[in-house]
Amino acid sequence: QVQLEESGGGLVQPGGSLKLSCATSGSIFSSYTMGWYRQAPGKQRELVATITSGARTNYADSAKGRFTISRDNAKNTVSLQMNSLTPEDTAVYYCNARNTVQYWLTYWGQGTQVTVSS
């Protein structure tokens, strides 16, 4: 089973930065699109950013220009650099992996809390 584990969440002031990391089990980056999603209290889960095995990226409008997703295939990790954070970014952030061939195979981490507050 593919396992994902997020880290790097915490409390940060508005305008500050955080970098989230996701460690994955095995060698999965050859056929998986990786992504970051978030869910705030009382709201639905939403896409933040995705990155394909070929390093193509896609961002939500709210993240574009502020967040950067990246992956290190050798280390089986994916990161999300978040800058210029606002209170609206407060949420639990989840790492996601989706198989590009067997597209119905998708995996989630347990999430890491990001709180933006002064």
Fill in the keyword field for this structure.
118 residues; mainly beta; 11 strands; 51% strand; globular
What report would you give on this structure?
The chain has 118 residues and is mostly beta strands. Helices cover 0% and strands 51% of the residues. The chain contains no helices and 11 strands. It has strands at 4-7, 10-12, 18-24, 32-39, 46-51, 57-59, 67-72, 77-82, 91-99, 106-108, 112-116. Strands 2, 4, 5, 6, 9, 10 and 11 form a 7-stranded mixed β-sheet that branches. A 4-stranded antiparallel β-sheet has the order 1-3-8-7, with no helix packed on it. Strand 5 and strand 6 (57-59) form a beta hairpin. The protein starts with a strand and ends with a strand. The mean pLDDT is 94.
Continuous helix count = 0
Element-level helix/strand string: EEEEEEEEEEE
Shape: globular
Which percent range fits the helix content? under 10%
| Integer average pLDDT | 94
Q: Roughly how many Å is the radius of gyration?
A: 14 Å
Oligomeric assembly = single chain
Beta percentage is over 45%
Largest sheet: 7 strands, mixed
Number of strands: 11
Span of the ends, CA to CA: 40 Å
Determine the structural class based on helices, strands and strand pairing.
mainly beta
Q: Segments where pLDDT lies below 50 for 5+ residues?
A: none
Brief overview:
This protein is an all-beta fold.
Write the layout of secondary structure elements.
Elements: E1 4-7, E2 10-12, E3 18-24, E4 32-39, E5 46-51, E6 57-59, E7 67-72, E8 77-82, E9 91-99, E10 106-108, E11 112-116
Parallel strand pairs: 2-11
Antiparallel strand pairs: 1-3, 3-8, 4-5, 4-9, 5-6, 7-8, 9-10, 9-11
